[in-house]
Design goal:
With about 600 residues, the protein is an alpha+beta fold. The strands form seven sheets. Strands 2, 3, 4, 5 and 8 form a five-stranded mixed beta sheet that branches. It is found in: Membrane.
Length: about 600
C-alpha cells in the first residue's frame, strides 16, 4: 500500500461526524408534528367521506351505482276493449314491436346503418339524427309491424333493441270511426268513445326491476314486480250491423247525389240507446295518414243547421195541446203567398183552406205560421226547450253542441213566424233525432245513451204532449210520408212509418246560398207502436234533386227496414200495399 493511501485512511478515521458543523444541526420538532398532522387530517377526510357515502347520502350513491346496471322496465297495461251491444269488438289492443336504441352503443358500421334506415323507412340522415351519441335513449320506431321487426332483428346491429307495446285495432274501420274514435301513439284517447272513456279504458301500467348487461340483455330480476292493471271494457249501445248498414247507405246517397257529406242517427225509442251514428266522409281509425278535417268531423253531433219543416209537427202539437186547434181545424193558406210583417211567406203551391192535418202532410209554411202566431213567444220557446233545442245533449260523447235558440223576449213577429217552419233556430241531427222521440213515446222526450243499458224496458221520459195529441201527430206524420205527402220514398215495405222531410238553403255569410241545400228526413217506425227513430241528413246534393223526401227519404227507408229486421220487429202491414216503387202518385214537395 502506498504512503498516500495510508495517509488518507488515517485522516478519515480522525474525522468526528458528531462534531461536524453540517451534521450537528437538529430537525425542528414542529416539522415532524406538521407531517403527522397532515397524515391525520388525510385519514379524517377519508373517514368523513366514507361516513358521507356510506351513511349520510347512501341512497343517492346507491341509485347512481344501480343506474349502471339496474333498469326499471315498464309493464304496459292493456287498454280495455270497446264492444258493441252484442259483444262484437269495435276496438281492442294487440301487442306489437317497438324499436329503440342506446345511440352511443350502436355499431358504427355504415353498411348496417343504411340497412337499418331502409328497414325502418327512414332516410340515412334521419337515422343519424336519431342516433345522436349525446342521447342516452331514443325510439327508432314505435308500434311497428311484425315485418319491420323481423328485418331489424336480421340486421343484428349492436345497440338496437325491441320491446312490445300495445296498439289499437279497429275491426269496423270507417263504418264506426266517428263512434269509436282513436288513440295516439301514447295510447291515449283523442276522439269519440276512446276520448270520452279514457279514464276507464286506460288501465294502470306496472313495472319490473331488472339487471341488464352492457348489451341490454336482462340478466336477472331485482325487487318486486308490480303487475299491470288492464283497463275496463266499455259496452256500447251501438249495434255493429246497424252501424255498418247505415254507413253504407248514407255513403251511397252522398255519392249518388254528388253531395258534400251525409249523416245517419238511429235511436231505440224504448231505451234511448243509440243504435247507429254514421257519417260520410269518414276515415280508418287504424290508419290516419293524410287525414283532413272533413273526414274527422262527426257531423251528426257537431254540425248544426236550421231544421226547416221538421219543426212543423211540433208547432201543430203545441197548438192542439193548448186547445187552439184540432186535427180538423181549418187553416186558410190562400193562394200560396202570405204577406206578413213586410215579408212574403210562400208555399211551393197553393193549398187553399186545409185542415191542420194537411198543413203537416203538405208541409205548408203559411199554415205553420198562422198556427204559431196564435201563441205567445214564451210558449213556443218553452216547447222548443222541452224537446232539447238550444241545449247540449246529455250524452257521454265529445263534441256534442247546443245549437241556437235565442231568448223569446228578443223575438220579432217575423222571427216567430219563420221559427214555426224551422228558420231562425238551429240544431244538430242528433238533437233532431232525440226530439222525435216525443212522437215515438206518446208525448215524452227520453234521455239518450251511447252505452248498453242493463235492460230493455222503456226508459222514463219528460212529458211534452199528451198521448192523445201525440197519436194524432203520428197519423199526420204517417200521411206526410205516404202517397200525396212530401216523402213517399220513405215508406218501408211491410212496416208503417211516419216522419217529416226538410229542405233548407244553407247559410252563407249573412244570408243564404241560392243553390246550396241541406236535405233531411226524420221519422219513426212502426207508426202504431214505434220502436226506432231514424234521422238522415245529406249536405249539398248537386245531382239535380235536393228535396229531403227524395234525397234523404230513401236512406231512411233502407236503414229503417234493416234495423227493424235486426231487432226482430214483426211487419205490421201487407207488403204489397206498401211497394212505393210501382206507384205513380206524385208527391207534393215540402216547402222551404
Amino acid at each position: 500500500m502506498s504512503k498516500a493511501n495510508k495517509a488518507n485512511q488515517s485522516g478519515a478515521r480522525a474525522v468526528s461526524y458528531s462534531t461536524s458543523p453540517l451534521l450537528a444541526s437538529k430537525t425542528p420538532p414542529w416539522r415532524s408534528r406538521f407531517l403527522v398532522a397532515l397524515v391525520g387530517l388525510a385519514f379524517l377526510g377519508l373517514l368523513a367521506r366514507a361516513v358521507y357515502v356510506q351513511v349520510l347520502n347512501t341512497d343517492f350513491f346507491q341509485k347512481q351505482g344501480e343506474a349502471r346496471y339496474a333498469h326499471t322496465l315498464e309493464l304496459p297495461a292493456s287498454r280495455g276493449r270497446i264492444n258493441d251491444r252484442t259483444g262484437q269488438v269495435l276496438a281492442a289492443s294487440v301487442a306489437v314491436p317497438s324499436i329503440w336504441a342506446i345511440p352511443k352503443e350502436v355499431d358504427a358500421d355504415p353498411t348496417k346503418r343504411r340497412e337499418l334506415a331502409k328497414a325502418l323507412g327512414l332516410s340515412n340522415k334521419e337515422l343519424e339524427a336519431k342516433l345522436n351519441p349525446e342521447t342516452r335513449f331514443v325510439w327508432l320506431k314505435r308500434l311497428a309491424d311484425d315485418e319491420t321487426a323481423v328485418k331489424v332483428k336480421a340486421i343484428g346491429l349492436k345497440g338496437v333493441f325491441q320491446d312490445r307495446e300495445y296498439r289499437r285495432k279497429y275491426p269496423e274501420g270507417e263504418a264506426a270511426a266517428h263512434v269509436v274514435g282513436f288513440t295516439n301513439v301514447e295510447d291515449k284517447g283523442q276522439e269519440g268513445i276512446e276520448l270520452a272513456f279514457q279514464k276507464e279504458l286506460q288501465g294502470r301500467d306496472g313495472s319490473r326491476s331488472v339487471v341488464r348487461d352492457r348489451l341490454g340483455r336482462v340478466v336477472e330480476d331485482i325487487g318486486d314486480i308490480v303487475p299491470a292493471a288492464n283497463g275496463h271494457d266499455v259496452d256500447l249501445s251501438v249495434d255493429s250491423k246497424v252501424q255498418f248498414f247505415a254507413y253504407q247507405r248514407v255513403r251511397d246517397a252522398v255519392v249518388e247525389n254528388k253531395a258534400k257529406a251525409g249523416s245517419v242517427v238511429v235511436l231505440d225509442a224504448l231505451t234511448g240507446e243509440v243504435l247507429a251514428l254514421a257519417n260520410y266522409p269518414s276515415y280508418d281509425p287504424g290508419n290516419r295518414q293524410n287525414l283532413s278535417g272533413e273526414q274527422l268531423r262527426n257531423r251528426a253531433m257537431t254540425d248544426v243547421f236550421e231544421p226547416g219543416s221538421t219543426m212543423k209537427p211540433f208547432i201543430a202539437g203545441l197548438s192542439m195541446e193548448t186547445g187552439r186547434s184540432t186535427p180538423d181545424t181549418l187553416v186558410d193558406t190562400g193562394n200560396g203567398k202570405y204577406a206578413f210583417q213586410g215579408a212574403v211567406i210562400s208555399d211551393t203551391k197553393p193549398h187553399g183552406v186545409i185542415p191542420v192535418r194537411e198543413v203537416i202532410k203538405f208541409s205548408s209554411n203559411i199554415g205553420a205560421t198562422k198556427l204559431a202566431m196564435q201563441m205567445q213567444p214564451r210558449e213556443m220557446h218553452e216547447m222548443f226547450t222541452a224537446i232539447g233545442l238550444g241545449q247540449r245533449p246529455q250524452v257521454t260523447f265529445p263534441g256534442a253542441i247546443t245549437g241556437k235558440l235565442r231568448p223569446y223576449k228578443s223575438w220579432r213577429p217575423i222571427e216567430q213566424a219563420t221559427m214555426s217552419y224551422g228558420y231562425g233556430l238551429s240544431a244538430s241531427l242528433f238533437q233532431l233525432a232525440r226530439a222525435y222521440t216525443v212522437f215515438a213515446r206518446d208525448g215524452e222526450i227520453i234521455p239518450v245513451s251511447m252505452l248498453r243499458q242493463p235492460h230493455d224496458h222503456p226508459v222514463p221520459g219528460i212529458r211534452v204532449f199528451s198521448p192523445k195529441v201525440t197519436q194524432d201527430l203520428r197519423l199526420m206524420l204517417q200521411a206526410a210520408a205516404g202517397p200525396g205527402g212530401t216523402a213517399p220514398e220513405a215508406q218501408v215495405p211491410g212496416y208503417s212509418v211516419g216522419g217529416k222531410s226538410g229542405t233548407a238553403h244553407k247559410q252563407e255569410g249573412r244570408g243564404y246560398a241560392s243553390h246550396k241545400y241541406r236535405s233531411w228526413f226524420v221519422g219513426i217506425a212502426p207508426i202504431v207502436n214505434p220502436r226506432i227513430v231514424v234521422a238522415v241528413m245529406v249536405d249539398e246534393p248537386t245531382a239535380g234533386v235536393y228535396y229531403g223526401g227524395k234525397v234523404a227519404g230513401p236512406v231512411f227507408s233502407q236503414v229503417t227496414a234493416q234495423t227493424l229486421r235486426l231487432l226482430g220487429v214483426q211487419p205490421d202491414l201487407d207488403v204489397k200495399s206498401q211497394i212505393v216503387a210501382n206507384q205513380k202518385a206524385v208527391a207534393t214537395e215540402e216547402s222551404f
